[in-house]
Amino acid sequence: MSHIISRETPVTRTAHDPARPWRGIMVATTLPFHEDGSVDYDAYADHVRWLIDNGCDGVVPNGSLGEYQTLTAEERAKVVTTAVEAAGSGSRVMPGVAAYGSAESRRWADQAAEAGAGSVLLLPPNAYRADHDAVRAHYAEVAKAGVPIVAYNNPIDTKVDLVPSLLADLHGAGHIVAVKEFSGDVRRAYEIAELAPGLDLLIGADDVLLELAVAGAVGWIAGYPNALPATSAELYHAAVAGDLATALPLYKSLHSLLRWDSKTEFVQAIKLSMDLAGRTGGPTRAPRLPLSPEIDAAVRAATEKALAEGHK
């Protein structure tokens, strides 16, 4: 039987913790553009407010979903200040500060701190396949900004793997407070907990949410709440509470949609789902292209199924 959510179901407000603001549901936000390709900051501010009003704890601007690689320095900085103002508290904002050089990442971390952000999200060096010494030096440099750092482990795209032993080194040095784990290997959760018991594990991909929540995750840097925040919040809170009777049917119902968060076309897919859900998704910037007819149809089918089942 499909899990049906009433359209009248009230949103469960989350207990945001300003002392550990990286915990909970932090949405890696998409970024809306005008027809001429410029950033629609007003629509973005509205989106940030809407996500928080619908059960999310905060936002992660300038991540891959926010197409930060295509932004000018001025645009990237304004996205952060727009998010902080719209969220009502800088503690609810975790800007991505990835860059090819450590000095540039440090500058973006300084900018985030000046804007009042509560934490930042940092990839390892990704201009080349950095060794562990280079990774340690990179995080040490950015940590000088004085804002809590969430490491982002994405060996699929960066070719640099933040293995549990390296994460333990970074945490032991005081350079990171948490890790967004995107490797897809859910077994790592247990080794991370053994080697770095004080390091917070954050779910880094939507389609391993239940597995990592059961393994002890205390946060979710999320994609699909951009389109379905209320249902996503219900799923997350049930999962971390161990309420499998609620979480498992929801997860099964949504998984055909959630798995698009881990595919190459994730930005276009989530923006299309937003459009279908009545939000402002819209186009992406080059070099991303519109979805192929086959992928467009698949994302539409999964989204329409979720909406028909009452997810929102």
What does this 3D model show about the protein?
- The protein is globular.
- Helices cover 43% and strands 9% of the residues.
- The longest helix is centred in the last third of the chain and has 16 residues.
- Helix 2 runs parallel beside helix 3.
- By secondary structure, the chain is an alpha/beta fold.
- Strand 3, helix 4 and strand 4 form a beta-alpha-beta unit.
H/E series? EHEHHEHEHHEHEHEHHHH
Side by side, the strands of the main sheet go 2-1-7-6-5-4-3
The helix-and-strand class reads: alpha/beta
Number of strands: 7
Beta content comes to 5-15%
> Which range best describes the helical content: under 10%, 10-25%, 25-40%, 40-55%, 55-70% or over 70%?
40-55%
- The overall pLDDT, averaged over residues, is 94
Question: What would you report as the Rg, rounded to the nearest angstrom?
Answer: 18 Å
| Large-scale geometry | globular
Largest sheet: 7 strands, parallel
Task: List the uncertain runs.
Answer: 1-13
The N- and C-terminal alpha carbons lie at a distance of 18 Å
By DSSP (H or I, 4+ residues per run), the number of helices equals 12
